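Handout, tutorial session.
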Amino acid sequence: MKFLKVTAAAVALFAVAFFTLSACGKKVDPKKFPYGTIEIEALGGGACGTPFYIAYEKGFFAAEGINAVLVSGTFETNKAGLASGKYPIANGDFQFFPSVNEGLDIKIIGGLHQGCIKLLVPKNSKIKSVKDLAGKRIGVDEIGGTPMAVTSVALANAGISPEKGVTWLPYPLDQLTVVAEKGELDAVALWDPYATLAEKDGYIVLVDIAKDPIFAGKYCCFLYASGKQLKENPQRIAAILTALQKASDWVADNPEEAAKIAVEKDYLPGDDPALVAELLTTYKYGHKHNLLSNEDTTKKDAYYFADQLKKTGYLPADLNTKKFIDDAYVDVFKAAGVEKHSAAH
């Protein structure tokens, strides 16, 4: 489980970097942006990050008093940034749970959407099911990231140890199918739109978390907040969450336009906004599905995936799941003393 840990030194490094960079940053109008300039790691190339892109492009962040700067990074930099307070909020899967259990000051504040990852094999592969992956090489975009966490749960449910039963090999997201075509990977775990593009190219889907019974109907992405920033300025976190709620509602109501913006602004690869729009409608964003920041649904799905991670060995088998999630969850609007955004249906 070493890949799921982050050292105190790394957290300290992020804290130093944050304050150094902040001191050198440009000043913004405090009347227009009372919460100042805030970096949010959201440029990962995944379709599921669309509410972040839309919150920026359509001015939802600005309307809440936030001068948002979207930046790129990795699972580890995102996790360390949250723990240090460099980043206030992040989109992530249940792969954060082990770090929370190990003591990192990261809080669950809501769920974002359903279904955005697939586990696939090349079209001529002899692998027909997850059970056939024992002893095989699985390509992921990064060790410890969401596609690896999803695949680990699928493996554990198939009786395969994700720590000892397979070999994990990390490659850049846009290179995974290229490496697989060379015969150097047996399977790949991909975010959309890469996953669906691979499927359209003939790859065979072993697990589609939008349809697979282990994952279907449940959050695949949760929203997390920095515990440090929640203590220091819960109103700022509430403002960011409100902007994301409004953006998620907008995506739910306008998937075609959202997809066009995401593609034309180069947030996503390719030149097929129609495909992206199709994907966005399956993610069940916003008020249409009563998902974002629904406490009951968030906790229920978090309980479920914490139990799934016990099967993988990433969480202790004797962990009190309910206490763990209840302690990790924070109602941001209650903590900030503000009203929750309510969309017009």
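The second record follows below. Compare its token runs with those of the first.
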Amino acid sequence: MPPPPSSPPGSPPCPPTPCALVLVLGDAGRSPRMQYHCLSLLPRYDVTLLGYSGSPLVPPLACGPPGFQARLFDPSLPLANARPLRRGPLLPLYYLLRLLSVCSLALFHALRPGSAAPPSSPPSFLPSLLPSRYDLILLQSPPSLPALALAYLLSLLCGRCAVVLDWHNLGYTMFPDRPGAWRAVRALVRWYEGLLGRLLPHASLCVSRAMRAWLLENFRLAHPVHVLHDRPPSLFSPPTPARKHALFLKLQASSSLSTHPLLPSLPPGQTLLTASPSLPRAGRPRVIVSGTSWTPDEDFGMLLDALVELDERQGGNGAFPDVLCLVTGRGPMKDMYERKFAAHPFKKVSIRTLWLEAADYPTLVGCADLGVSLHTSTSGIDLPMKVLDMYGAGVPVAAVGFECLPELVQEGVNGRVFEDAGGLRAILEELFGEGGEEELGRLREGVKKGKRWEENWEEVVGEGVLPALPAARAPALLLAAATVAVLLAALKLQHPPLLADW
């Protein structure tokens, strides 16, 4: 990370660039909103992204822009040999050990020496205790456990530095609401989330107006709460025909598309969508793209049922185009649904699952005629992030309806809303059938009218949140010394090699 700019001779020294910590206690590569925060903060701060390793970062961060560093770690390493604890009565002990392990690793990577620019105002005797200090902590919730407690401790170590909490959802709603121990856990997490949600941040962000109203009414937040709707970033844009052609040539050679039944009949150099780098292919299939994490909060069976109905109704209709459904993502239910896909003898429809390089994903989204969102919120007040990828690429969306979805998807303006498989099937028949291209064109025009992430972030955060944040004070030295001592002891037991980096 470059040093702060030097001052001309005889002039006052330039203040050092302030440092921001963006905290994601999850796979950082699967949190695009927090990565977009990093990009937006960079002109004002040197930014450290702290999170779990796994998925690649978005290309603008993966290339290592000046002022940015990623401190990513594997949270499973300290408990790699603790499988017997994951069953039966010892399961609560496993979860407790895992929380402590994550906290010790996150603290180590947050505070260890690195290439970050020096903090803006540390006392001269602190670097030996706290090699890294921050002027701003921006964290994501959920997961609220242990992220809120960890951020509170870090903020105290940094002199109660400014903290901004970005509410993506309500963490407690991810615990089952059923009688017995789980209901008690859910109630405890809700209390913890509300308490630290009031005490920790100087300002909060949230993804919908409905969430803001809920937080103010139920958690009684006294600090400013700003609605920062997700918007597509500039890295998503409609791809050129040449990019579409190059991507499909690549996918047809090396992915599940290589088994598509239409490929043997294509002339050399053509793809399912394009006749050449500049021309679409006559008779091409209509393309649906759906990004999913293959978890129960996305009812992928609804899309499968809709496609089965569509195939049964249109399979013998020569005027109706073929339909290619491309599903991206990884998750626990993927194998189960792939077996279900294979069990159906489709005529007009084909379904393929893909895992793409980060640089190829925006192009694939832009190849779609229609995006499909199956996200149903556990709280009813968050919004599906994948829809923004589609809007950024100029693609309208069909989304399953829930309470606050109209804040993002307006029926008949930039997308369509359905409630069940029959409703989705009817939308596909309308938009892909005779006269449907005209309606798709109107929806594409509606998509173009939305703001981009950069403009929206500057209005809400750059102009509304950051100027009102307080400056950090002197850190609590006794707390810092105690924390570092406990951290070093924990690392000595769990990860002795890490101490060499301290």
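Points raised in discussion: The radius of gyration is 25 Å.
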